[in-house]
């Protein structure tokens, strides 16, 4: 007769109550302070701006905090004669700068990532330099070059016999021209990342099927990069409207 071995019943160890530590209190206090600071710095000015747009009284006056609101400020802003032209010029500026920068960034990124063209590293270097240089320095440089009064290009054109200034950097076309070169480095780096992440086997399969470089680019490369192209375009449009 075999005796069965009695198995001891194991009880789970009692869990100890974890008391909050000083580190938890410090982390909570820092997080609460950051959230409160952001609310004070961001939400409060926006609320005052919105409330002031619905009031005719100036901030600090007696009737500023009354509950009487009006939309007369919005109506006056929309019905002004320059409102439509300002909105139209803003969209023209944003769209022209975005499409211009993207139109240059796509072929440069394609050459850098999908071909074995020489001096590809130079394009990367120039794009990094374009991001490092401050925007105010770029604008001042173009003013010295194409200003109607002091621009070096207009001075050179005047010495050749031209009476009127040939270039005006303060016009809408001048603003678009400067913005294209400012947005180009960012658009190039974003499109380079998109082309770099593509599977080269798809292009090789297209080439083995007898398709040339142009047809492979239009039928394979561009459709694969289309989501990235649209994303970069939206980013550039928003940036243009923000600075307009």
If you consult CATH, what is the topology of the largest domain?
A: MetI-like fold
Tell me the major beta sheet: none
CATH superfamily of the largest domain: MetI-like
Name of the CATH class of the largest domain: Mainly Alpha
- Give me the strand/helix succession: HHHHHHHHH
Percentage of residues in strands: under 5%
CATH architecture classification name of the largest domain: Orthogonal Bundle
Which secondary-structure class do the elements indicate? Answer: mainly alpha
Per DSSP E runs of 2 or more residues, the count of β-strands stands at: 0
Number of domains: 2
Task: State the gist of this model.
The mean pLDDT is 83. The protein contains nine helices and no strands.
Question: Can you describe this structure?
Answer:
The protein has two domains: 55 residues; 162 residues, MetI-like (MetI-like fold, Orthogonal Bundle). With 244 residues, the protein is mostly helical. The longest helix is centred in the middle third of the chain and has 34 residues. The termini are far apart. The protein is extended and about 75 Å long. 70% of the residues lie in helices and 0% in strands. α3 packs parallel to α7.
Write the layout of secondary structure elements.
Layout: H1 22-53, H2 72-79, H3 81-114, H4 120-132, H5 135-146, H6 152-159, H7 172-196, H8 200-208, H9 213-243
């Amino acid at each position: 007769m075999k005796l069965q071995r009695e198995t001891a019943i194991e009880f789970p160890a009692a869990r100890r109550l974890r008391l909050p530590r000083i580190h938890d209190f410090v982390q909570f206090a820092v997080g609460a302070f950051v959230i409160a600071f952001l609310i004070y710095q961001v939400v409060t000015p926006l609320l005052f701006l919105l409330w002031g747009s619905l009031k005719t009284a100036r901030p600090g006056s007696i009737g500023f905090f009354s509950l009487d609101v009006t939309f007369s400020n919005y109506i006056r802003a929309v019905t002004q004669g320059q409102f439509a032209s300002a909105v139209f010029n803003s969209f023209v500026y944003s769209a022209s700068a975005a499409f211009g920068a993207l139109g240059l960034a796509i072929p440069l990124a394609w050459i850098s990532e999908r071909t074995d063209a020489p001096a590809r590293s130079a394009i990367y270097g120039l794009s990094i330099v374009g991001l490092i240089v401050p925007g105010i320095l770029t604008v001042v440089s173009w003013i010295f070059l194409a200003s109607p009064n002091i621009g070096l290009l207009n001075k050179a054109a005047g010495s050749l016999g031209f009476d009127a200034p040939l270039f005006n950097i303060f016009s809408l076309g001048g603003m678009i021209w400067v913005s294209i070169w400012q947005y180009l480095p960012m658009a190039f780096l974003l499109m380079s990342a998109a082309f770099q992440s593509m599977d080269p086997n798809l292009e090789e399969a297209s080439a083995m099927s007898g398709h040339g470089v142009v047809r492979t680019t239009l039928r394979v490369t561009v459709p694969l990069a289309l989501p990235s192209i649209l994303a970069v375009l939206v980013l550039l449009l928003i940036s243009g409207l923000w600075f307009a």
